């Protein structure tokens, strides 16, 4: 387990801004410290005399319409809390995020530089995991994700905004990789020849799920779309899965995206950027726990085509995220936060090793889904 405070890179001036901005949310701020290991936003834990909070500067290079993001999050969190409030045994204050409005009542704050900030109540007594150390984590996380999807299945008010268009559209991700290869903007193609070949030789995989969604065989639902392990909070005392955070990409999607991203991050006891690839692979005992945890909650609302493609979804999402890391490496690291040169290439290699491992165990994975 990683200490969330230890992993974050933030400049002193950004930290000063965070302290100032936190004060604009009507709380008596004591301190703001960098928090978490997310690849996208600048996240701070704010301590105050009225409790702790999470303050985030939204990455508007990636989320180009932050108001749309926040409108979605307001709708989703209010709906979740309303439903949890009438669910026996549920604790809405720890199982759903709660936005804290700025002093003027708006659910976000824009500073003098035009940066967008938002604040959530801090969910205490909870931990996140960077690697899946035990099948129980996979089981619990999958249960939380399935419940999230179920609770949002009757979200009123029409479709959510698509905050990143074609976010998980694998054929477009492959096209973006091909463009990055032909531009070779950072002069790195030669260093990633094997990985480029690996990706471009898997066109069929890239089209597999997109084709079925476009043909109407797989329904579009409200999904989270970023269900990696460290976006799930676990209760520290009991180990039970509590809450899904990181709601920026909660929008219309396929349950296969959510399940697939869990397979990517919860079936291997090594980190996403582990460079000792002998430690990287898909382990069936985690996959089995994931399927059990997920279907235990989700079986009642899934259709046969969704269940039938769960094993494939793991291969697909791991491939897509690998393609995105590789594309970012070739483009000069403009999207994901990196912590050393070649970090995105390390991540891509790691993802592709997972894909190979899933390819080899395809039959066993299918059998587990069928038996569960
Ligand atoms: P990013 O998009 O950069 O990944 P996240 O929204 O996932 O940002 O937040 C980063 C981390 O902060 C999460 O992985 C989680 O550990 C922690 N976190 C986020 N929201 C909360 C919250 N309300 N309470 C406690 N921890 C949180
Ligand atoms: C990003 O924000 P974070 O770190 O939870 C990314 C996901 C990737 C993931 C790879 C908005 O997730 O799509 O799968 O990194 N989020 C966005 O670790 O691009
Ligand atoms: Mg995150």
Description:
The chain is α+β, with helices and mostly antiparallel strands. It has two domains: 12-122, Phosphorylase Kinase, domain 1; 135-371, Aminoglycoside 3'-phosphotransferase, Chain: A, domain 2 (Alpha-Beta Complex), CATH 3.90.1200.10. The chain contains 13 helices and eleven strands. It has helices at 12-22, 66-85, 92-95, 135-151, 170-183, 193-200, 203-214, 255-266, 284-298, 304-308, 310-330, 343-360, 362-371; strands at 29-34, 42-48, 51-57, 99-100, 109-110, 116-121, 126-127, 221-223, 232-235, 241-244, 251-253. Strands 1, 2, 3, 4, 5 and 6 form a six-stranded antiparallel sheet that branches. α5 (170-183) packs antiparallel against α7, α8 runs antiparallel to α9 and α9 runs parallel beside α13. 2-acetamido-2-deoxy-1-O-phosphono-alpha-D-glucopyranose binds at residues 38-40, 62, 226, 228, 231, 246, 248-249, 272, 321.
SSE map:
Blueprint: H1 12-22, E1 29-34, E2 42-48, E3 51-57, H2 66-85, H3 92-95, E4 99-100, E5 109-110, E6 116-121, E7 126-127, H4 135-151, H5 170-183, H6 193-200, H7 203-214, E8 221-223, E9 232-235, E10 241-244, E11 251-253, H8 255-266, H9 284-298, H10 304-308, H11 310-330, H12 343-360, H13 362-371
Antiparallel strand pairs: 1-2, 2-3, 3-6, 4-6, 5-6, 7-9, 8-11, 9-10
Helix pairs in contact: 4-8, 4-9, 5-7, 5-11, 7-11, 8-9, 8-11, 9-13, 11-12
Bound molecules: adenosine-5'-diphosphate, 2-acetamido-2-deoxy-1-O-phosphono-alpha-D-glucopyranose (GN1) and magnesium ion.
């Amino acid at each position: 387990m990683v200490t969330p405070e230890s992993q974050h890179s933030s400049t002193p001036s950004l930290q000063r801004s965070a302290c100032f901005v936190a004060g604009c949310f009507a709380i008596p701020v004591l301190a703001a410290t960098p928090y978490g290991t997310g690849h996208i936003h600048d996240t701070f834990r704010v301590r105050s005399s009225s409790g702790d909070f999470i303050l985030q500067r939204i990455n508007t290079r990636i989320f180009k319409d932050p108001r749309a993001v926040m409108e979605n999050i307001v709708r989703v969190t209010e709906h979740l809390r309303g439903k949890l409030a009438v669910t026996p045994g549920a604790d809405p204050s720890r199982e759903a995020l709660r936005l804290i409005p700025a002093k003027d009542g708006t659910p976000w704050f824009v500073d003098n530089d035009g940066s967008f900030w938002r604040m959530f109540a801090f969910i205490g007594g909870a931990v996140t995991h960077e690697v899946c150390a035990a099948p129980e984590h996979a089981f619990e996380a999958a249960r939380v994700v399935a419940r999230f999807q179920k609770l949002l299945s009757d979200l009123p008010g029409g479709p959510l905004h698509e905050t990143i268009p074609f976010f998980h559209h694998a054929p477009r991700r492959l096209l973006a990789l091909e463009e990055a290869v032909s531009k070779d903007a950072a002069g790195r193609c030669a260093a990633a020849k094997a990985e480029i070949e690996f990706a471009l030789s898997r066109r069929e995989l890239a089209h597999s799920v997109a084709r079925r969604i476009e043909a109407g065989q797989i329904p579009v639902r409200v999904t989270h779309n970023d269900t990696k392990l460290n976006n799930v909070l676990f209760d520290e005392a009991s180990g039970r899965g509590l809450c899904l955070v990181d709601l920026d990409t909660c929008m219309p999607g396929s349950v296969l995206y959510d399940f697939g991203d869990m397979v990517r991050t919860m079936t291997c006891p090594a980190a996403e950027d582990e460079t000792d690839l002998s430690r990287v692979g898909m382990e069936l005992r985690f996959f089995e726990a994931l399927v059990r945890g997920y279907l235990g909650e989700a079986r009642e609302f899934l259709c046969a085509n969704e269940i039938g493609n769960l094993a494939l979804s793991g291969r697909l999402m791991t491939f897509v995220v690998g393609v995105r890391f590789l594309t970012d490496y070739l483009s000069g690291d403009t999207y994901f936060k990196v912590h050393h040169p070649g970090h995105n290439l390390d991540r891509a290699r790691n993802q592709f090793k997972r894909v190979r491992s899933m390819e080899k165990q395809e039959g066993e994975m299918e059998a587990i889904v069928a038996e569960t």
